[in-house]
Amino acid sequence: MATEVSYICKRTVVSTKAVEPGRFFPLSVLDHHMEKNHIRMVYYYQTSREVEVGGVTKKLRESLSEMLTHFPIVSGRLVRDDERGHWKIKCNDAGVRMVEAKAKGSVEGWLTNLDREKELQLVHWEEMFHKPYYWSTFYVQLTEFEEGGLAIGLSCIHLLADSTCATTFMKAWADISLCNKMITPPLFHPLPPPRPRNRNPNHHPHMELIHHYKSLIEKPIALKDVRYTTISLGFSDHMVQACMSMVQPNGPITPFEALTTLFWVSLSKIKGLGNGLVDMSICLDMRKVLGLDYGFFGNCMVYNKVHVEGNKFPQVVKAISDVVTKMNSEGIMDLIEWLENNDTSSLTMMNGHDLVCASLEGVDPYLAVFQDWFKPIHVSYYVEPVLGEGQVLILPGKQGEGPLSRVAMVTLREEEAIKLCEDDVISQFSPSILMKCQ
């Protein structure tokens, strides 16, 4: 397997226009709490077999350089502020690292036999150096297939960006490549400011979110030598509708709530909990709740614990739906203000204990259409490292497969992933296996 991908070179790509000197970009409290995580994404494209290997990479390298002029935070470097020692970005045009590679066979052949270990060869990542000022926070890998096809791997530290930001980055790069114009530019501004202190004196903070973050801060992570793997399951529009009807036949719910219920109950049985449920947290994008534009660049994913009595589908989905409803602007602002008054970000690992089910339904990676009308034929997302009970990412399905179609990327201990593929409840929906256990 190791010989399927040959790495040609690693270089630094800088923007075509220099940023004004002395510019810094502060990071928010939601950014600080994601420092220990990073994101990896792989986009697959069909390309003409007539193009010589290396030709597509050269064009995309040039368009990336153009695009970086609009993303000074991406091409900057991490430094500490003098006041509290928190990270901030010095916008110094240091650039992003790009790895160029080639792979045997075609992209279609690659996708027919995909697993986690194989896919991660297509997305380069380096842990932070002991000298962070020289370390690139973003990495791009371009892998051209000898018999046609391209994979674009993007990785970044979660401290700077969440999955929505990374998707915006890819879309902006595609726009510049396709039409030399950015259709959805990034917006670099702070989270909503703290509310005036002379607000309603009878205001009682929403404590559920605060308690969850506080519990994560106070509970140390016990790192174990556990082997995790990832499987990817595709659910058609019809399958998701059937799942929604099964878990909640008498009320409106979202695809995320239905699929989270399905995986929570099934994984709890696989983990041997009998009539109980494994501890589970959900993770949601709060841009819309906070009145922020989709292009807001920074972390806006918020985690919350779900508590439920019983393990029947209607009970479970109601508990999830109730928690989603309670994650409103008041509760999020209470959390942000509490985090700003409690400097504990360096201790937090947001995915360290529970099963985490994250909704990425708001992203649309299939809009990243590059020059020569290269359209994504498959995408994968990872939020790393995965610890504790595992992780489920719910993504939109491919364009043309219906508005309710979804992809579930599930990362579990290897023996649990094998059992999940054989689970009777999930198997009744006949999801397509897009990535198998290795």
What does this structure look like?
The structure is a single chain. The protein is an alpha+beta fold and 438 residues long. Helices cover 28% and strands 24% of the residues. It has helices at 29-32, 55-67, 107-111, 116-119, 163-179, 207-218, 237-247, 255-270, 313-326, 329-341, 414-421, 424-427, and strands spanning 5-13, 24-26, 38-45, 77-80, 87-90, 96-103, 138-145, 150-157, 228-235, 280-285, 301-306, 355-359, 376-384, 391-396, 406-413, 432-435. The strands form three sheets. A seven-stranded mixed sheet has the order 11-10-12-14-15-9-16. The longest helix has 17 residues, at 163-179. The model has no long low-confidence stretch (mean pLDDT 91).
Tell me the number of strands.
Answer: 16
- The side-by-side strand order for the widest beta sheet comes to 11-10-12-14-15-9-16
Radius of gyration from CA coordinates:
22 Å
Fraction of residues in helix: 25-40%
Strand content: 15-25%
Main sheet attributes: strand count, strand direction, barrel closure: 7 strands, mixed
- Can you tell me the CATH architecture of the largest domain? 2-Layer Sandwich
Q: Which parts are unreliable, with pLDDT below 50 for 5 consecutive residues or more?
A: none
Q: If you consult CATH, what is the topology of the largest domain? A: Chloramphenicol Acetyltransferase
CATH superfamily of the largest domain: Chloramphenicol acetyltransferase-like domain
Question: Layout of helices and strands, plus pairs?
Answer:
Layout: E1 5-13, E2 24-26, H1 29-32, E3 38-45, H2 55-67, E4 77-80, E5 87-90, E6 96-103, H3 107-111, H4 116-119, E7 138-145, E8 150-157, H5 163-179, H6 207-218, E9 228-235, H7 237-247, H8 255-270, E10 280-285, E11 301-306, H9 313-326, H10 329-341, E12 355-359, E13 376-384, E14 391-396, E15 406-413, H11 414-421, H12 424-427, E16 432-435
Parallel strand pairs: 6-7, 10-12, 12-14
Antiparallel strand pairs: 1-6, 2-5, 3-8, 3-13, 4-5, 7-8, 9-15, 9-16, 10-11, 14-15
Family: Belongs to the plant acyltransferase family.
InterPro entries: CAT-like_dom_sf, Plant_Fungal_Acyltransferase
Protein name: 3'-N-debenzoyl-2'-deoxytaxol N-benzoyltransferase
